[in-house]
Design a protein that fits this description.
By secondary structure, this protein is of the alpha+beta class. It has five helices and six strands; from the N terminus they run H-E-H-E-H-E-E-E-E-H-H. The strands form two sheets. The chain has a four-stranded antiparallel beta sheet with strand order 3-4-5-6, with helices on one face. It has a two-stranded antiparallel ribbon with strand order 1-2. Strand 5 and strand 6 form a beta hairpin. The radius of gyration is 19 Å and the shape is globular.
């Protein structure tokens, strides 16, 4: 089934590229990662998603290796298509023009968990019947096999507080502060 999905995407992308003026069009393709009972943890290798972009006059085959979140897609596309975007109206960042993120957040309602990933450490917590907390040293343990939370308690506390600042103290089903401010300006609150 996955191979059929790849062929379907390839065929449709080919049709799209044939239909647009490729000299003047910004084309982006991105995907999501699906939650699955066979993927019971918020592992890095399962959190990466493809984001391909073609920009007129842009570099070919360039790979940007930096932290990004789905919220960064909009500002990146706006900056590519228009040359700029309103930082007041967007929660995300232009992946090519703005300062890189130092940390990224992910959550899974399916797993009832969330994580904060920095350059060296990754903090993960699950809100199950028996709450679990993990801290992984991603430089020393990229496979996320050893929980080093006891050895690096201060870093775990800092990351837990930072994660709570992004998503709230016990579950990420809240609106991020900058998004809330934007929605208030638009009279949604």
């Amino acid at each position: 089934p996955a191979v059929l999905a790849f062929h379907l995407v390839d065929d449709n992308l080919g049709a799209l590229l044939a239909a647009v003026d490729r000299e003047n069009a910004v084309v982006a393709v991105l995907s999501d990662h699906a939650s699955s009972p066979r993927a019971p943890r918020l592992l890095d290798r399962r959190l990466h998603v493809p984001f391909l972009m073609q920009v007129p006059g842009g570099p070919r085959g360039a790979r940007v290796k930096r932290f990004a979140q789905a919220v960064d897609v909009g500002p990146t596309l706006l900056a590519a298509a228009c040359g700029e975007y309103s930082r007041d109206a967007c929660s995300g960042r232009d992946l090519f023009g703005d300062a890189p993120r130092r940390e990224v957040v992910a959550e899974s309602r399916y797993l009832d968990g969330r994580m904060l990933r920095g350059e060296r450490f990754k903090y993960v917590e699950y809100f199950t019947d028996r709450p679990e907390r993990y801290l992984f040293d991603m430089q020393a343990d990229p496979e996320e096999k050893r929980n080093v939370i006891a050895r690096h308690a201060a870093e775990a506390q800092r990351m837990q507080a930072s994660l709570a600042g992004y998503l709230g103290p016990t579950g990420g089903h809240q609106i991020m502060p900058d998004t809330k401010r934007l929605l208030q300006r638009l009279d949604y609150f």
